[in-house]
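Consider the subject:
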Amino acid sequence: ERNVLAALYQSLGEVALRELAGWRLGVFTGAPEFGKSVGLRSFKQYNLFNGKLPAQLLLFDVNAENARTPRDPAAAGQVVPRIFNAERAEMLRNRLKKNMKSIGQWARKQNIGSYRLYDADMPEYALAIDIYEGKVHVQEYLAPKSIDERAARERLAEALAIIPDVLDIDPKDMVCKQRQRQSGTKQYEKQAATGEYLKVQEHGCTLKVNLKDYLDTGLFLDHRPVRHWIQQNAQGKRFLNLFCYTGAATVHAAVGCASRSLSLDMSKTYVNWAMDNLSLNGADPRKHLVEQADCVAWLADKRTANQTFDLIFMDPPTFSNSARMAGVLDVQRDHGVMVRQCMERLSTDGLLIFSNNFRKFKLDEDLAAEFDVKEVTASTLDKDFQRNQKIHQCWHIQHKV
């Protein structure tokens, strides 16, 4: 934790001076602002990276003559304040309070326990802050190259100091990650291995989330209205969930009394997660099947074309080159083919819900000539995502009468 780093670095310098006089010390650190706490003057500093994280290598000659006379809090081993710009930090504090008053009150009235509180509302703090039943999930968007790395670190430190105070939570209940574009197998890679799951409620459904182990939590909050619509319109219908992730949409369909469902995803981790979510909600495993499959290959397989569904939800990734796939998926290039393949499996009066989160996405214009296509994006954004109109796009597609 940052509030104990200064003392740790001070101890390192004291031990080096006592035991290793005449040696050279190299400190590779992601928090170079604590370097002065070592108590020695560094004669060389290298700007390096730990993966994508900015860091520094500080070099010291360990001798008494090179000892630094404490002149500031860091050199004296005291905690370095994490608020570097008080005026800017106060603006963030006020924005979070404002959002808590508007979005927080809305969520409580709607009985929604998981929602987005802040989404890069201020360009100085490029963060997404989500609430999960009292826990806080913070995602730092990757800063553009025009932003100084040290400045970005300082602003993140400011935000992480302010958030627990404004939201009145224990800092231990806050998780912070860096958000980057994920593709292929990277989107499934673990960030940690805590195995800590939290159950959240959404429109009568119980869903498992994990705030620490993966880049995503297991629940895409922006699709909450889509899932609720599925729940309200699934009664007696055969439901297909492609690229099902953790099966949240299928849970809503099952709770909405769908007659049966089939959910497909390439990741065994998410297939098992989807099964757990369905089990938590009492879904009959004989009627609600979850299978590990490459959805692109499944759609292209003529042997599956005789399976008919009344309601299909397809939310493919923007790009995937997973080793489990036969080829490469590019949603802009491939969506026309996949939509047509879905329509082959859709009953005469059925409905395909097609969505994706590629910000530059353009729907194949030829689809409107073949099918009844209606964009419904505006109706699929709850209050907590209405300030981010490009979080996803969504269409309802049906056979022409």
